[in-house]
User: Fold this.
Amino acid sequence: MAQFITAAEAVQKIENGATLATSGFVGGIIPEAVLKAIQASYLETGTPRDLNVVFAAGQGDGGERGLNHLGEEGLLRCIVGGHFNLTPRIGKLVMDNKVAAYNFPQGTISQWFRDIAGQRPGTITKVGLRTFVDPRLEGGKLNAQTTEDLVEVVNMKGEEWLWYKPLSLNVGIIRGTTADQDGNISMEEEIGTGEALSIAAAVHACGGIVIAQVKKVAARGTLDPKDIKIPGVLVDYIVQSDTADHLMTWDHEFNPAFNGDLKVPVDSLPAMELTNRKIIARRCAMELIPDAVVNLGIGMPEGVSSIAAEEGVEGMVLTTEAGTIGGVPAGGGSFGAATNAHAIIDQPYQFDFYDGGGVDLAILGLAEADEHGNINVSKFKGRVAGCGGFINITQNSKKVIYCGTFTAGGLKESVRDGKLIINQEGHNHKFLKQVEQITFSGDYANSVGQPVLYVTERAVFKLTPEGMELIKIAPGIDLEKDVLAHMEFTPIMKDVKLMDSRIFEDKPMGLEV
Assistant:
């Protein structure tokens, strides 16, 4: 039976050199009280130390919270994670070569937990082939201190797969909302269930201990068994935290629209101004199909929702990696949650859906592209951002669009009389001879016949077996001066046409899907 203890007492159960798995997604489902207690114990006593930590999604706020509490030199020995952008204190340890570190796809890590729970021989998947996680490139290793191979290429019936080797987990640190006296845990006030059950089952199967943070305790037998997400037989210790360390997201102590307690009216999104962002979003929206299941990245891709609303396009189903299906995905410190979601499922099963081709259209950001159609979103000038769920989504969606401005850094543009005007060119090029790191493989996409577009405000490219082909330019744009002069390679050009004039008019396009 689970024991109820304080966060400080829970940390005393963690041995030096242990391998931990932690749950969480940005600011949701984060066991903040326990993570804080680990940091406090280490700073006061030097223990626990030399920990190995495995996590799937980004778990932090870009500052001090979440896994940033573990960013103390000596506390960590090795990190295996999906996304590092929100954990700069850990990222610095990685860049300074103070810890061994691996970056693997978020979905694969969450599925890895589930496979460990079943004591299967690791995780076998095509996700990551020909990207930086492929051992023939970098094997997901992030610095010189990282030498052990955790992933191998295997051949099964003539097909290549990646084999992520099994891990032994000693400690699972998860979060729920309410625990009864037998340790059964419900998650009714969380943004979702994440990978908490898979972590608990995996650690239990490895003979380790599971520490669960909750904010409420219920009497034995009072929780509806259908509401139990983590059965008490998998839980060893319960830590009851105060609300300050148990926020629903970094932005909300509690939002009933995120867990389905309340369906709120969603006001129509205001029409976007006619800027380069709207031009890009409009061109992307032209690729929508009826009742499409869509995954939108953060930033520029989010504008597609506004265009769909403005054009009266209905039936688009948006998803997030955290497990939400339908509704309106939240951003910022609430990313991973969704207002008025139709369904919320466990994260590993969401990635099963993604890996199985469930997404009709993925629209994601364009940070760097090269002549082979490769995309980099994971590493810039040595700084590790991490791939997150990007590889799972982009490798397996039926169609992928990468979108962003053609250049960056000081770019100023306007639209006049249906033409795009470049008032000040950006000084950072995005179309390179070779990207710094391959997060999306154009070669792999070509091998499976996946349609891929690269949409900017002034030029549209498509991936072909021969490389990147320029297919459209904006009215008002000079091909040589405004496009080719700012690329490190010359794209294929067979029949370059003008982009649809409606994109550059300050009125609805009359889009038909």
Notes: The two ends are 56 Å apart (CA to CA). The chain is about 20% helix and 25% strand. The chain has a mean pLDDT of 97.
